[in-house]
Specification:
- This protein has 381 residues and is mainly β.
- It has helices at residues 22-33, 87-90, 192-195, 200-214; strands spanning 78-80, 96-100, 103-105, 109-115, 119-126, 129-132, 134-136, 139-145, 153-163, 168-179, 185-188, 235-237, 242-245, 252-253, 257-260, 266-268, 273-281, 285-293, 296-303, 305-306, 313-314, 319-322, 333-340, 343-345, 376-378.
- It is globular.
Amino acid sequence: MTVLRSTRFPRPRRSVVLAALTAAALIALAAAACGGADDPAGPAPSEPSPQAADPTLDQSVAEEEPALDREPPAPPATVQIGPTEETAERLEGEPRIYVVPQEVRQGAAFLIAVDAPGAGFASTAYNGQIFTLLREGDRFFTILPVDALSPLGPTPVVISVSDAAGRQVLRRETLITVTDAAWQIEVVELDASNQALLDPAVIAEDTAIRESVERRLTPERHWSGLFDLPAAGVITSSFGLLRSYNFAEPSEYHQGLDFAGDSGDPVLAPNAGVVAWVGQTRRRGNGIVIDHGGGIFSAYYHLSEVLVTPGSVVISGAPLGRVGATGLATGPHLHWEIVVHGIPVDPVQWIRDQDVPDPAQEFDPATAIGPAGTVDVAVGG
């Protein structure tokens, strides 16, 4: 029996973080008093230091994932800095930055694109990590995830652009707004053998194997446009459902889509990529992970048979394996995931033509972030 009811997550507490400069001022005054020469160069600006991202959770027809009580720290007050006067001289015009969309639902992905002819490098700082943007022609881009349990409200994103010599010519900050997905609860009844797979040690083993693959960055894009469905069966369980096993309090959420099927039904590649991992875990059974490039992965679990090997290049529609019920499963089905930089996101976004993050799309310059010469202040609430 499946019970669904609406659930909302509490909004996190936020605070404004102020940088303390008193010590530096005292040192400067002391140096002046002693007759020392003033140092004309101020402290070099620094990007946010990378931090370990939240570990990926787990899931399946009867599997689950992340803890529901995570609360990342609130972003500090920030200043948005416009282009320097030398930007146009060092580049072939002023860079245009696009963030699409700027209102992002929990569990979705968003696109950052920078059109910067003549630039040599671009990066972004987001959620305590620094991501290098991929380059295709004059466009730099990356796709970033919003965790299904991410706090609601504004989150800062910082974009930096450097010229061909590696000198920073633009640093701009904007905000995305995380909106509520209103995840519901799904009750899954398990027998004793499947309950044993809820052991934290089993979950940790499964998570470690997947994260070792799905946090890699291939610096080129293999996929193109819309993703196809990997199986013909109906969808029986959606992304984001909070899993209650045998009517206990929900402890995980479902990290993908489940497709009904008979054992042996074909599983097909939804887009181009390279097979990054083939193996088995007690939790998810037989599985395959495909690297689509740029930090985008797709994964397939509970298979009865695997038809590819690591390193194989696949195209859309290529046979990958067959539906099964290995691992934590209450019956034959395919569990399919899309993972962005190690974070599972809703696969539905990738199969809808109007929603899929497309790095090759054209943008209206009027929608670029931050007009030239402006300095905006974004205050954390």
